[in-house]
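Tutorial, part two.
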Amino acid sequence: MKERYLLELDLRRVPSLAPDVVMCGSGIAALSAALVAAENASVMLVTKGQALESNTFYAQGGIAAALSEDDSPENHLQDTLNVGCGLCDEEAVRKLVTEGPDLVRQLIEWGTPFDRAEDDRLHLTLEGGHGQRRVAHANGDATGRAIEQSIAARVREHPNITFLENHFAIDLLHKDGVCYGLLALESKTARVLKIEAKATVLATGGLGQIYRETTNPDVTTGDGMAMAFRAGATVQDMEFVQFHPTTLYVAGARRFLISEAVRGEGAWLLNEKGERFMQRYDERAELASRDVVSRAIMLEMEATGSTNVYLSVAHLDAKMIRERFPNILEALKKYRLDLTKDRIPVRPACHYTMGGVRTDLHARTDVHRLLAAGEVTSCGVHGANRLASNSLLDGLVFGREAGKQALALAQEPQPTFPEKKVQPIRGKDEIPIDVDDVRASLKSLNNRAAGIVRDRETMANALRMLDFWQNYVYSEEFATTKGLELQNMLGCSQLVIRSALRREESRGAHQRRDFPETDDARWKQHLTYNRKEFE
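Running the prediction step on this input gives:
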């Protein structure tokens, strides 16, 4: 990925702001970081859409933490390590599971309406990969929305925090391994704004929109990963992309996620013939981890020549289903489907990115003054396959850590970006680009080449096409969010497929037809890329 700035700019003439801390994103990681840093620093939250437009807002299932008397952080740690297939950082997972419960209790104190049982204890559910019930949920199946709203209310009331909505982060301002802030584009006016800060935090989420089949909102285009990589930060484990097994598959419908918790409550997966099939693939049946269930569904679809399988809860108590999953029921009504009695057509779709910007236990990247938290990172807690409902906890724990580190940097003198001008990409070709067409082609290509099951020939062909597209897409100086997103999606796609080609084994969410076995001797290691390797 080449350096990208929007125009040849004289930075002395660009409107500028200088908060102590600038953060990109508006999900649980960004909001958690902002609240901590704002204790004694001015914080600006930059988001390319509206404040609540994030993966957090759409998270249905819940947040996992050892909150019951018969559970423990040690049990949670072991389940996480097992699902991570040998690539979790145990120290990072221990931080997650030990600090997590108190932070969830803090959410309760802030008014997050987690659901409770009749005895007023938290109602905890079971999800795939967990050894026991430990997933707290709110408003049935709207946990992310409830958490985001409770944290966002505190953020909006804080006098040291300001939101800059509808501003797209073009690139980080950096030089010689130091980050000085970023350039942002106001979406409506195309005005460029320089934001210099003592600390910069990336909490921009994942790259789900590089796939045609995805549960992610439109804003998840890999922007933070691409910006960090261009600035010299190392990315790690980009081949590990998790597919959610059960997303609604109806012609013309968005790929609406049917929560993991539905299977946790006892739902069955049925093939085209109406037969349960998961027992043939794993002894845990429908409660196997996401990688196992997703792969089994794809194999069953191939065996039966069908485009989907079905999710059924008709054998369960309808009253319980209505109370537990009100939002899913309401969404399905649009397609004349009743969750309590109909077979719901589902198939896997891209859901979560385990890889990303490499960070340490303190949310630090290898670019000074650049921090990162949440799905944009590879912080060591998810390994090769994320344990269900660990993502919100990840954003909570490591967002808080990013905020602590940003606050420490905010006590230092304000650095000034040493460059007076930033240069454009050279050698621009006058090639008209239909951004929507290239974007659609890119998403379809990734679905074929870097989906649930992969092989060398398909990925090699895809990489040649991506490299060809880069020759003219990256030479454009876009003044629109869509064009800038396309460049980020293209760069992230190259990193995903290069990493997947390099890992010649099957592990967790990464499955190779040509290398179907797990090879600990050669591949029980992280794969990293740094921009310097391509220069």
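The mean pLDDT is 90. In part three we will examine how such features are distributed along the chain.
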